[in-house]
Amino acid sequence: MLTVFFALLLILILLACLVLTLFGLPGNWLIVVITAVYACLRPAGSAAAIGWKSVAILLVIAIAGEVVELSAATVGTAKAGGSRRGAALALICSIVGAIVGMFIGIPVPLVGSILGALLFAGVGALAGAMLGELWAGKDWYASWQIGKAAFRGRLAGTLAKICLGGLMVAVVIVALIW
Fold first, then answer.
1. What is the structure's pLDDT at 110?
2. Other C-beta atoms within 10 Å of 108: how many?
3. How far apart are CA 26 and CA 22, in angstroms?
4. Cβ(155)–Cβ(73) below 8 Å
5. Backbone angles phi, psi at 8, to 5 degrees
6. Number of neighbours of residue 126 by Cβ within 10 angstroms
7. What are phi and psi of 53, to 5 degrees?
8. pLDDT tens by residue, 101-159
9. Which of 146, 78, 151, 144 is nearest to 120 (CA)?
10. Are the CB atoms for 123 and 106 separated by under 8 Å?
11. How far apart are CA 66 and CA 24, in angstroms?
12. Whole-angstrom Cα distance, residue 173 to residue 166?
């Protein structure tokens, strides 16, 4: 019975970590660390144990989530015809925007910080891409189009990272059952 309790507790903690990812916090990395600690505490032969192969899979998924999230705005900028300067500034400004948005938030109960981090990250990518393109000599309209692509790319990247976090929780559940 205690084994089932600890397995369910692990799943609840990992779901809480997934929610942290919505806030722009390192929830996916916490999933990896907490699962590794659980794997250390539950010997391989015991019930509801998690092997190191599962932890390695989580690590690969977490790295993929970071790469997807951070590169999405730059990919959006590049696909819209943006310069390297615009892509770099979209990346930097989206990170700054996510941090600022997490603290400022949007006045919506419970989810204001989540929405703020997501929105401000997208707006940061938009502003960074536009600034980079204006700096590179493009006109306002072309810069706006590239900025919108960076905005959409950043939001898509964040949503993809959250989906990958959900996949990580699913991997742990499958590992607990098998």
1. 64
2. 11
3. 9
4. no
5. -65, -40
6. 28
7. -65, -40
8. 878 877 776 667 777 888 888 999 999 999 999 999 999 999 999 999 999 998 898 88
9. 151
10. no
11. 11
12. 11
Is the distance from CB of 161 to CB of 72 less than 8 angstroms? no
Estimate to the nearest angstrom the gap between the alpha carbon of 178 and the chain centroid: 28
Amino acid at 115: L
Cα–chain center distance at 7: 25
- Neighbouring C-beta atoms of residue 65, cutoff 10 Å: 25
| The token pair that represents 48 in the structure block | 């509801």
Mean pLDDT along residues 41-60 = 86
Place of tokens 């659980």: 38
**Alpha helices per DSSP H over the chain:** 2-22, 27-41, 52-79, 84-104, 112-135, 140-177
Which residue carries 């949007």 as its tokens? 106
Residue type, 24: G
Task: Say if residues 58 and 171 touch (Cβ distance below 8 Å).
Answer: yes
